[in-house]
## 1
Amino acid sequence: MGQNCRPPPVLDRAAIAVLATLLASSFVSVSSSSSNVQQARFAANTAGKATSAGGQQATLVIGNNNGGGAAGTTGSFEEFVAANVESYNVNKQIYAAKLKNGTGVKSVDAALSAAEAGAARYVVSADGKGRFRTITEALKAVPEKNKKRVILDIRPGTYREKVVVPYTKPFITFLGDPKSPAVIMWNDTAATRGKDGAPVGTVGSATVAVESDYFMASGIVFRNHAPMAAPGAKGGQAVALRVWGTKAAFYNCTIDGGQDTLYDHQGLHYFKSCVIRGSVDFIFGFGRSLYEDCAVVSVTAQTAVLTAQQRTRSIAGAAESGFSFLRCAVSGAGQIYLGRAWGDSSRVVYSYTAMGKEVVPVGWDGWNVARPERSGVYYGEYRCTGAGAAAQHRRVAWSLVLTDAQARPFTGTHFVYGDSWILPPPKPA
Ligand SMILES: *[C@@H]1O[C@H](CO)[C@@H](O)[C@H](O)[C@H]1NC(C)=O
Ligand SMILES: *[C@@H]1O[C@H](CO)[C@@H](O)[C@H](O)[C@H]1NC(C)=O
Ligand SMILES: *[C@@H]1O[C@H](CO)[C@@H](O)[C@H](O)[C@H]1NC(C)=O
């Protein structure tokens, strides 16, 4: 049960036409029909992050264009929802125009389509039958600032290595076989000491860290097998996969760990038909991500928290951040919270998701946010099913049951602007 928030402002047709033109030229300035003018634009790059793909990185900035764009004006979830609904409506108009025009609905961004033409393949096989025995060696062979897709054809087997896909190497694909997936595993925790003798911390504990843009993986198991997931064991952050680059897609992958399994660090991400297993805060971070047809499984007999979406009003560009779960299944051991607020504006929506009886009746937890109902925390559910779904229970009063209009922006790949970058996984060789 929850309150519904104020309906978003509705754009008139003339405004949409103007917006459509602007958005089509990849720079959009959105004015809402309300007196409170908002601006949304695709910036060429993210401040502080080296451009690895010719400045094509798209970042949605929503705010009053006062520089950072975040403080003050982007705090309320009404604005977040309104911005999403607007963006959805604008895109719908563009698609309709393109369909009518016969120009095709999908328009992959220029850097990506150039990269896909002339992709290279490297065979990686732990048994020595490929060009490389380890993923790390294969990544070393990729030229710096590559402009072409490089597909690492990773043969079935266990790869005991800690892997970093550096930000200077975009367009990397880890291609495994979903029927016999390659397993990449390591066992660092936040407390593990690095070469300098200092603890590596949560960020440094990742088995696989993806720092570059346009990453893709299919049929891969990302595992952190530090022994803290065992019942009764002391906890510890142990990341299996950390994704920092934007425009990353994962198909038929398993992300397997305990506490802090998947660091959905930042950027636009798409997880399709994946299995994500963990215990506390096991999907966490600042990403703007769609999880579609995924199984999210608690592995602890105690209390699991599926998400700790990180969003604080003061973070510049924070409006672009949020997790959407679409047609997923939530199950597992112990009792499960759908999310807890990492920061005062944490944002998570579950739609058409099957929720097991393990989901606690209250659903959500405010963590350190004293008055979530007064903050920018936005936790919503839409047409979920099962014994743990909102319809069966009294949720915390500050969570929402979304209306159709409110849910629409979250229930498709448009949530992550997927038409400009989501491509299917490559065919096996
Ligand atoms: C319609 O097609 C023309 C010619 O291909 C193109 O110049 C124009 O940009 C297209 N308009 C839209 C809205 O796609
Ligand atoms: C996932 O794997 C299954 C089984 O191999 C396959 O049928 C399906 O097409 C794959 N899905 C995607 C999105 O690649
Ligand atoms: C992690 O794995 C390595 C290599 O298999 C092993 O030597 C080490 O003891 C393991 N560390 C822990 C904490 O289990």
## 2
Amino acid sequence: MGLLTGDMLGPLAVALAVFLLLLDLMQRRGCWAARYPPGPTPLPLLGNLLQMDFQNTLSYFDQLRHRFGNVFSLQLAWTPVVVLNGLDAVREALVCHSEDTADRPPMPIYEHLGFGPHSQGVILARYGREWREQRRFSLSMLRNLGLGKKSLEQWVAEEASCLCEAFADHAGRPFSPRALVDKAVSNVISSLTFGRRFEYDDPRFLKLLDRLQAGVEEDQGFLHEFLNSIPVLLRIPGLASKVFSAQKAFMALTDELIQECRMTWDPTQPPRDLTDGFLEEMEKAKGSPESSFNDENLRMVISDLFAAGMVSTSTTLTWALLLMILHPDVQRRVQQEIDEVIGRVQRPEMGDQTRMPFTMAVVHEVQRFGDIVPLGLPHMTSRDTEVQGFLIPKGTRIITNLSSVLKDEKIWKKPFRFYPEHFLDAQGRFVKQEAFMPFSAGRRVCLGEPLARMELFLFFTCLLQRFSFSVPAGQPRPSDHGVFSFLVAPAPYQLCAVPR
Ligand code: HEM
Ligand SMILES: *[C@@H]1O[C@H](CO)[C@@H](O)[C@H](O)[C@H]1NC(C)=O
């Protein structure tokens, strides 16, 4: 008992402090490498965590970029982070070294949702067999479902009609389009994951969308980063379910929907949706305990696709409508092109795109300007990698600043303006741009890109075919500055939709 009293305490504290500092140095030895990217001086244990202003991350990073250049480092507790800016650095890391940078950092924080070695979903899966299996599965299911009887394009077009009907109910009166756009986009992804759509006033649907939105918001901020950096804290009983209650609720609703699919699944029929396809793979994988086709992963994969497929596309469409009311001249030119190529009666089809260069340029410019995933998703190096002459050791978290590519001043004529001509040549033909990277690039490039492209084009043209949009009379012009809340979305705004 006398061991820890009086004289002993002082030396013991010193020894403990020395031990912790040594441990800290060991954990961070990567940063001592020659040619490691420069960055702000980290404190022991916490690194730069306390210096980060989580309310205003973007402007803090802006300062660092000015001080240290396009490639700089940060230390979040024991996690070394390297931030890449500009087309050259991002392309070199994601495209030239695509294999070395395809890993994701471990996210212990998601274990409370069921994330585990064989149930990693797709988005956050570590680079390895489980990720490869699920990425390949998702891509091939998306392809197959598009080619099925009721083709994907038709699904989207029908949902676009429902959305137009819902807009028509508000015609003439100012309203906020966000909630309706959310529903339409969710129904597209829901048709793929669960083979069904929901009525726009279905209470269960409303709850699902509400919990998804709230869940996305739980994924940001200091507490999230702090818990992920120091995951032992998650062992505190009840903490995870308190801090992540919306995500838990969203998963519970996903479970219900999966269960309903299961009850009507007929293994002798071709899969109606991704859930059917997954169940089929689970049957094939029976007896191989290593397979990533298992019950736990079913809900991870399906909820990943639902969340990724819904929030990003809907946010982009909300940007598109905002930019149309702010730039009525651009809106008119799109409508003119629609009238010439499609007319007022025919439904828009993907095939029309080749004859609609201006509309194509506008949709691309909406994505470039909207810049909704400014920092991409985190990557991690799986071996020592060189980028722009800097050495990035294995196990370093990489932040690809997609915003710095989409707004690279060396490339775009008017990086901070909405200017569809960025994607048009002198003859008015559509031109691709290498720095157009809203879906990222390399092995982890967004797997929903073709689906998103289809939704953006069809929803956008259907809406502009039917309505003219404007800032409601007497209301101030809404701002085109995005608000960062996991994704960058326009601040809530209202518009008027007048049938054409
Ligand atoms: C305008 C709409 C969209 C945008 C801007 C977007 C953007 C992105 C970005 C930036 C990433 C990160 C890539 C990386 O790690 O480097 C990503 C990943 C992903 N996206 Fe999308 N996305 C969109 C729509 C969709 C849709 C509709 C789906 C649904 C099928 C989807 C599914 C995914 C998945 C599963 C991943 C993870 C891929 C992986 O880790 O291998 N996305 N997306
Ligand atoms: C990303 O790029 C944008 C635009 O160039 C810049 O404002 C922002 O500070 C950058 N963020 C980071 C993390 O470097």
## 3
Amino acid sequence: MASSLLTRQLALSLQQNLRLAAPGSRYVSKTATKTVSEFEYDAPSMKTTVPGPKSKELLRQLGEIQNTGAIHFFCNYEESRGNYLVDVDGNRMLDVYTQISSIPIGYNHPALMKVMTNPNNVSAFVNRPALGILPPENFPEKLAESLLSIAPSGMTKVQTMACGSCSNENAFKSMFIWYRNKERGYATPSEEEVGTCMVNQSPGCPDLSILSFMGAFHGRTLGCLATTHSKAIHKLDIPSFDWPIAPFPKLRYPLEEFERENAQEEARCLEEVEDLIVKWRQKGKPVAGIVIEPIQAEGGDNHASPDFFIKLRNIARKHGCGFHVDEVQTGGGATGKFWAHEHWGLDDPADLVSFSKKMLTGGYFHRDELQPDKPYRIFNTWMGDPSKNLFLSEVLNVIRRENLLEQVTRSGKALLQGLYALQSQYPHLLSGARGQGTFCAINASSDATRDSIMLKARNKGVFLGSCGEKSIRFRPALVFKEYHVHQLLNILNDVLAEHK
Ligand SMILES: Cc1ncc(COP(=O)(O)O)c(C=O)c1O
């Protein structure tokens, strides 16, 4: 009875959500090809500056409860569709930031609405289990259907988690456990180890370390934060570990034009990585693992070549360190491959690959050796959420059915070409366009210019994200078509033309 009532309500909301909006756009290029999915709006539509009056009032109300400094505006998620995010003042923006890169196939996708309205799924939404002790009957089947169907090469195991940080945090723990087990020859831990771990002392709590890179972002929990080096605001006042930090290559773009200089810069960084591994071993804090993003995202969309990553993987292997690829932001298709590290052509797969965001659930894939030897070593109450696996299965169906990775590659090419054109037209404002798939970025001449461009674009109907010191990052959903690229470029062009 209750379930059929819920189903009726969801079906009603589905009908309301599928109502089509009136077309009309002020900014669409006449030359742009128009291919609008049937459930989507066809253009931005702005009624107020953003934030508008309703958003401002809600900001005031929430400000009495929380710090609201990071909030851009309040959203009307019911009215948002596809690539368009609608705010509470009725402004409809082309969303090129997608909830910090975490919306895989746009807002209110009909396929996901169907997952919600399927009565067989209701109990998964209503009853969130403690997965580590009481998983539902269909859990192995659903994992196989969703996550294991896209497991990176060499990996047959997956551990789900809630968010990106807790995925990385537990991936680090897995590397430490694996490293110590190797060191003690897989023998039972000594009484001394068991005793000392209870009071945070060695050898039970060993002085091991994780090597990370300057500019990296791996999350804000305590362990992750020790490997995050993108912005001081994330780290200030928080105690941290004395772990090695290697320089990440500072490359010149476009990469094809600066191959020789970039290769030298990468060689310098790799040399430093090996030096740090040796130094930290001498210091008595051996490096148990290396963690790296395929493209440093929050830190400024910094790229490195496949050759750099392959050599780094070899260094990890040579020194017995785990190799952890953090695909929390790059994973899920935005680079044109499901996993960004597939672009490297590694012979020897990574040891761990963490994910979250577009995957809708957090977690990490790992090699068999990194499976913890005992229960409760990698554990928490929820350890993920089976309802998210249901959504993920459907997202994967849509990606396959609609060839979205090919779509991303096409849209990405159009976007990058457009960014190259804009930077040559406005060289005093923009430079350094770069990207893989639609995972693109461009530098502004200063942080103030970047912020001003982004605000003006928002008021004209394009919502963008920033990264690094002065970069704009483009993080559209996988359903971002060439038509949307043209809308975006036209609006950016208007903003840049008016820029004083
Ligand atoms: C590469 C990377 N790792 C980890 C995280 C942390 O994820 P979460 O914010 O879900 O904790 C992020 C978040 O932006 C990220 O981009």
